[in-house]
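DM between two lab members

TW: hey, do you still have the Fe2+ transport system protein FeoA entry open?
JB: yeah, one sec
JB: this one, 114 aa:
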Amino acid sequence: MNMLETVVGRCAHPAEPKDDAADAQPGLEPLAAQGEGVHCVLCRLPEADRLGQRLADMGFCPGAALRVVRRAPLGDPLEIDLEGARICIRAAEAEQVLVHRLAQTGNTHPGARP
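TW: and the structure you got?
JB:
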């Protein structure tokens, strides 16, 4: 089993009921809390609302490789590298996206760019 399979296995299945807090699953953190250059794997999107659907339409899906490229000078919005595509989202939106941070020792998703 490779690193990605291990991480995705720890992420909640989209059909499973879940709490709003990241505390329900250790190791999950909001995307907004990640520093610049941090590689992570998307685990959970907001459900049953327009934001979750809009993010999914842009390619945000469980298992996708993400990296925070940079933040605007006042911290909002964030520029995200989503498997090679650069997307800007508001910090409030990124707060609702839960990710698993990958170790910074070269264990990155195969689709992630440096």
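TW: got it. The helical segments are 3-10, 50-57, 91-94. The longest strand covers residues 65-71.
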